[in-house]
Amino acid sequence: MSTLSQVGMLLANTIGSMVLLIVVLRFLLQLVRADFYNPLSQFIVRFTNPALIPLRKVIPGFGGLDVASIVLALITQYLLLAILVVIATGSINIPWVSMIPWAPVALFSLILKIYFWGLLITVIASWIAPNSYNPALILINQILEPAIRPIRKMLPDMGGLDLSPIVVFLSIQVIEIAVLGPLVQAVGMPAGLML
What we know:
It contains six helices and no strands. The protein has one domain (3-193).
């Protein structure tokens, strides 16, 4: 791969991943009914509204889910994968149709990573700055709480020690091994394209 291709891959991957992360966060924040007035929520809404508002006119919500934001995330993921494959191969003659199942698999992987890194950030922040009112930490906690709460209720009281993050970490790892790995192989996606 030439130097220009490597630079192109780096730029496309970085910028595309950031845009994709913001779009997925928009879906997750709406899913958990996070604080709309949080400054980070406001940024995410303003960033995604230009693409999401026209899409909502065509794709309605269903059962409280913002289906338009899921579709926008899938489109963004597909375009990012296509750009990366075009840059890597140096040709636009790529398997456009066979890449369609790659987008949901890569999106599933990204959501698992959001939960993994979000949980890691909250665990470290609870040691360094407990009871912090940082807007980012508040949003991360709001995203993670629906996944952690049921596990926390099932575990016995350990005298102030919360072991639920360990269970969630292990669950994420099991899902990556037992579900995500076989999915990547089933759709024929190159492992190097996982973001």
